[in-house]
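note to self: dont lose this again. the chain is below, predicted strucutre after it. 277 aa total, dont forget to put it in the shared folder this time
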Amino acid sequence: MIEDWFFRRERRISRNDLAEPGRLLVSLQVSSENCWAGRRCCRPSGSPFSFQRDIQVRYFLFVVASLVLLCLPPDPVFAQQQDAKDPVTLFNGRDLDGWEGDSNWFRVQDGAIVGGNLQQKIPHNFFLATKKDYADFELTLEFRLLGTGTNAGIQLRSRRIPDHHEMIGYQADLGQSYWGALYDESRRNKILAAPDAQQLAKVLKKDDWNHYRIRCQGRRIQLWINDLQTVDYTEQDQSLEQTGLIAVQIHGGPPGEAWYRNLKLRSLAASAAAKQQ
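---
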């Protein structure tokens, strides 16, 4: 009876309002304001309720709707936006401030970091690393490889091996047979996850600029090349460190160059699932 009376009101609360808590709150607020203003719409002719009773019922429904909203699960898109901070630029496009590595094999050219060269063989792997550690983040950048058989990659949550040229940690790989794969550099020395080569070939632009998106959150690592997801990997080994340096690599081998530009990093909050692991 109470419900039917509210649906007959001049300022009606529709059944759609009850199905959508946000609309219900707006309807209740507008109607309540009218009631407090003493408008006649709050006391329709023949109503069995007094003005005071009307206010009490509306307040009751307002409280119920508020509780419903509080109990709703969070919007995953909104939650993802909230867990991220504003992006920062890792490379200023002018010099290697904030990075450390062998300047004989890394240089800045045309607003990009360039590893290697096209005139001489590269004796072994070289890495240009950040001076800061990063744990949970989303990294975006552009890359291109020049030369025949050039291999490179981006190190994630990695460490330099003392008194050695190598680094240890995850690598978002680049190069023939390795494009878009997740490799475990100098640790397990194997591919942890790899994309469908045929699907990747449809979006990859060889000898041209491509876009890499790398997301590390908790024990999960996700990779995208040109908006195609190539890896979604969750680390099962609880003993492995999930923080460390970021680095760009030029792999040892024939003459070749790896170009990197527009490196931007957005720090992320550790996911709830990661905190429980």
